[in-house]
Amino acid sequence: MKLENKVSVVTGAASGMGKAIAILYAKEGAKVVVSDINIEAAKATVEEIKAIGGDAIAVMTNVAKEEDIQNLINTAVNTYGTVDILVNNAGIMDNFEPAGEIIDQNWERIFAVNTTSVMRATRKVLPIFLEKNAGVIINVASAGGLQGARAGAAYTASKHAVVGFTKNTGFMYAQSGIRCNAIAPGGVETNISASMTGRSDFGMGRIMPGLAINPRNGKPEEIAKIALFLATDDASFVNGTVITGDAGWTAY
Questions:
Q1: Distance CA 188, CA 135 (A)
Q2: Is 1 contained in some domain?
Q3: Looking at residue 107, which CATH number applies to its domain?
Q4: Which is the catalytic residue, given 25, 155, 173, 252?
Q5: Active-site residue 173, yes or no?
């Protein structure tokens, strides 16, 4: 098993890509801390992991709150003794608004969940990683972090920020046994659209033509396989970069 005895923390792991990552990590021998704001769904993920012989716990986490991030990592350490892998997967969508339609409250909410949480969780695990000169951070960015028209302005900006943060973190700690990479999924079959609170008709109208060139949507399990690669020593020379999983959508 590729992750035997590793301790992993996966945010947003009650559904979608986070759930798929958590289950695959468990199959590969990792102990998994399943983090999500939906604690009942997180517990269901844990039960699935236990049913296949894995080891996992669920921790209710609103990643937009600093105290919840602190509790998440502290609980992981108190339960399993350390953290080896952090997967910052939790994220929400905007409403496809262009800049002229953005409401401050929505901008701040999207950045709190998509970007600030990544910084805070990373900041929290770094002392653990630095002490043992080892650790892996995987940030789930988006094709929207590479291109300008996969969502609205707020989501796009938040994911571009995650990409920049990933590159900086990977370089800064490259000589400390720590790797930090991002995954940029294209269209993947998840329930992230449930986080939308409305829809900009203008924004959707501008984005729609690009949807026609998407070769296909992906499965959460396909993204999980990328996350597994990045978590293992197979990716020992991969650091401070972004792996795109989108069937070639951004290649156009």
A1: 27
A2: no
A3: 3.40.50.720
A4: 155
A5: no
pLDDT digits (tens, 9 = 90+) for 136-189: 999 999 999 999 999 999 999 999 999 999 999 999 999 999 999 999 999 999
Provide the domain limits for residue 83: 7-251
How many domains does the chain fold into? 1
Residues 27, 52 contacting (CB under 8 angstroms): yes
Beta-bridged to residue 92, according to DSSP, are none
Question: Phi, psi at residue 87, to the nearest 5°?
Answer: -115, 110
On whether the CB atoms of residues 230 and 138 are closer than 8 A, the answer is yes
Q: How does 13-44 read in b/e, with b if 16+ C-beta sit within 10 Å?
A: bbbbbbbbbbbbbbbbebbbbbbbbeeebbbb
Residue of 172, 164, 145 whose CA lies nearest to 250: 145
Residue 251 has pLDDT above 90, yes or no: yes
User: Is residue 2 in some structural domain?
Assistant: no
